[in-house]
Amino acid sequence: MVSPLQRGPGRRTRRPGHVHGGGAGALAEAPVLAAQSAVAALSAVAALSAVAALAGLSAVPAVAAPAVPPPVRPEDRPGDHLTVVVRHAGAGRDRTYELFCHPAGGSHPDAAEACRMLDERTRWGRDLFAPVAPGTDCTMLYGGPATARVTGTWAGRSVDAAYDRSDGCETGRWDRMVPLLPRSGPAAYDQ
To answer: Most buried of the four, 8, 51, 54, 148, by CB within 10 Å?
Structure first.
């Protein structure tokens, strides 16, 4: 015979004051057991629904993923990249150019020559885009109202350089950057 305190398949532990078997105690126990069974069934259904919903969500990215990679942004493109903004240089020259080198490309009107010139003038330890040194004696020859700003990356270094033609030194600095910057005078880049 199995002791009422033993547990096994189909057997419950005896609680003090609880009546096992038939009689009034069994009748009082039936609604409680039915309610507990209903709660357990609802909990199981809720748990399965949650798992099914999560499984469905995990499949969505694989189905919704685009088949085409996103477009390459200029800053993610390999090689050197410069943005040249030219103002007050005259008709056909005032605009913003994008220049990519290695390989040459972008909206610059002479990308291959601009990249070649930059490559030729790049020297280890020297800033190709450095401003005129303070205290430099310069002629007071005004080269015109043109201004330019060059930003981006060249030879792995960040570039942020401003150009103008306010005196002989600044005009010479500008002219050394042609064809990156437009030539002064009546000749302009082809459109």
So the answer is: 148
CB 164 within 8 Å of CB 171: no
CB-CB contact of 176 with 118 (8 Å): no
For residue 159, what are the β-bridge partners? 152
Question: In sequence order, what are the beta bridge partners of 86?
Answer: 95, 148
- The pTM (predicted TM-score) of the whole model is 0.58
Instruction: Tell me the DSSP string of 99-128.
Output: EEETTTEES-TTHHHHHHHHHHH--TT--T
Task: Give the bridge partners for 95, in sequence order.
Answer: 86
Is residue 174 within 8 A of residue 148, CB to CB? The reply is yes
Rounded Cα gap, residues 54 and 46, in angstroms: 12
| 139-186: pLDDT as tens digits | 999 999 999 999 999 999 999 999 999 999 999 999 999 999 999 865
